[in-house]
Amino acid sequence: xxxxxxxxxxxLGQRVREQRLKAGIxxxxxxxxxxxxxxxxxxxxxxxxxxxxxxxxxxxEALATQPxxxxxxxxx
Length: 76
Fold this sequence. Notes:
The chain is an all-alpha fold. The termini are close together. It is globular. The mean pLDDT is 96. Helix content is 67%, strand content 0%. The protein is built from five helices and no strands. Helix 2 packs across helix 3.
C-alpha cells in the first residue's frame, strides 16, 4: 500500500484551519500560542508541511482540543 503523503498533509491542514477558525483566532495568534512561526502555520494549513507529532500536540493544546481531533478521519 502506497501512502498518499500530499493528501495526508492537505487533510491535516484543513483540520487545523477548521479548528483555528472555530476557535476564532488568526494564524499569527496560533503561531504565538504554539511557539511556531506564522509561516509554518500557513504551510501546515496549505498542506505543504510534514508536521512532527510534537507540533500536532502543541497546535491541539493551543486550539483547546485533542491531537486526535486534528488527525481524526485522515486517510492515506
